[in-house]
């Protein structure tokens, strides 16, 4: 009996054969992360401006949907349009103030979510809950530190977080590329 490859199996085999492209993507993400970390203030301002443009595009889609939907209660589309338009314009006209405000929101989020994770981990009897306790503690401390150093933390934190995320995401793609490379070599040796 000969096994015919499934569409998913064939696609996976194409990805395996192109592992070098996955490696290139990972290295590019790492490079972008290092660039973001080299000037976190610029990375913060650029990312806030990008968010502002995305909100303006979202406002445009809300407006199109508002006029094309012909619904009885278009209140949510109107509210979404107004919110996205105003917030997008605010972020584009003063990205530094937008970054400072977003960092304050992130500080509150990290603190609240960290405390909730700490409470959940402490009140559960799950195995390996130490990791959940550590996760909650780190998030809560990060929230406290952002809040304690606010507003100056608002000028660099978003760029720093994006840089770290790009580097970690890049390393995961690099690891996947080497895993794909090993599977290609193992497959060619088996033939």
Short description:
The protein is mainly α and 191 residues long. The chain has helices at residues 7-17, 19-38, 40-69, 75-93, 95-123, 129-148, 157-190. The chain has one domain.
Structure description:
The two termini are 17 Å apart. This protein has one domain. With 191 residues, it is mostly helical. The longest helix is centred in the C-terminal third of the chain and has 34 residues. α4 crosses α5. The protein has 7 helices and no strands.
Query: How do the helices and strands follow one another from N- to C-terminus?
Result: HHHHHHH
- First CA to last CA: what distance? 17 Å
In percent, how helical is the residue content? over 70%
Strand content: under 5%
Report the major sheet: none
Q: Low-confidence segments, ≥5 residues, pLDDT <50?
A: none
- The outline comes out as extended
Our count of helices gives 7
How many domains, in number, for the residues?
Answer: 1
SSE class = mainly alpha
Radius of gyration: 23 Å
| Strands, count | 0
Average pLDDT confidence is 82
What is the topology?
Blueprint: H1 7-17, H2 19-38, H3 40-69, H4 75-93, H5 95-123, H6 129-148, H7 157-190
Helix pairs in contact: 2-3, 2-7, 3-4, 3-5, 3-7, 4-5, 5-6
Features:
191 residues; mainly alpha; 7 helices; 85% helix; extended
């Amino acid at each position: 009996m000969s096994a015919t490859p499934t569409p998913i199996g064939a696609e996976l085999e194409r990805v395996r054969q192109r592992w070098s492209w996955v490696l290139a993507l990972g290295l590019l993400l790492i490079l972008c992360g290092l660039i973001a970390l080299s000037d976190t203030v610029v990375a913060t301002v650029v990312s806030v401006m990008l968010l502002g443009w995305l909100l303006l595009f979202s406002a445009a889609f809300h407006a199109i949907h508002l006029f094309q939907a012909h619904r009885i209660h278009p209140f949510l589309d109107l509210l979404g349009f107004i919110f996205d338009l105003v917030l997008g314009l605010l972020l584009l006209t003063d990205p530094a103030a937008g970054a400072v405000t977003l960092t304050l929101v992130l500080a509150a989020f990290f603190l609240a979510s960290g405390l909730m994770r700490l409470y959940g981990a402490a009140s559960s009897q799950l195995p390996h809950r130490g990791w959940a306790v550590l996760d909650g503690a780190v998030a809560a401390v990060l929230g406290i530190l952002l809040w304690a150093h606010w507003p100056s933390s608002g000028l660099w934190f978003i760029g720093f977080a994006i840089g770290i995320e790009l580097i970690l995401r890049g390393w995961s793609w690099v690891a996947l590329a080497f895993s794909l490379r090993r599977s290609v070599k193992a497959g060619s040796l088996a033939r």
